[in-house]
Amino acid ABC transporter substrate-binding protein
Amino acid sequence: MKLKILLAALAATLALGSAAQAQTVLKVGSTPTGSPFTFLDTKTNTIEGVMVDIIRAVGKEAGFEVQIEPMAFSALIGSLTSKRIDLISAAMFITEPRKKVVSFSEPVYRYGEGFMVPKDDDKEYKSFADMKGMTVGVQVGTAFVEPIQKSGVFKEVKLYDNPPDMMRDANAGRIQGGFMDYPIAASIIAKGAYPNLKMAKSYEPTVVGSLGIATRQDDTELLAKINKALEKLKSDGTIDGILKKWNLAD
């Protein structure tokens, strides 16, 4: 009888332990089209990249596991606020409008937008003023959309749901140029998928921002754990190591 009671107690303890462990798995929204920050590795059929490595390192340090959930960039914030996911770790700038809806960690990496053009376009583009009358593309949901639309210099600004569609149109000459996160565009073009495109190296970005990990605004305890983990990972060189792994400057 005592043995049965002991076994029952042990089973209950194990069950509670399993339940507690399951609660530490957080769903993290990432995009499959943001290399080198987040992208679909076709060999493993998993989402990989800078922000995936960082959130995994943060989770290990902060005491939770991560389950990467692939989705379109424009769906990330809505999925977070509706609790379909628990975190966002992607190529998402920390901006004031977004901070009104979600909370961000301390900055992880800083950069601006890049401008891609056909290889035979040798014009020295430095700003929007050099693009007057052009038809260009930009990814919907990014921080670049508003300033590009408000500039008033373009003949047409086409909005795209994802980078591949915009890059295919630019590569085929259906648009004269496209705006994207510089590291993402440069990484994709360097792989040779769009042989007719190049980055306009002379272009100076208008929107320079920092990437951060996003949480729901009421998840203050989780955000504090993430920031504490990031501080540790920055000080011990882990973040620098991840950036170097993906050929990004510190």
Summary: The mean pLDDT is 91.
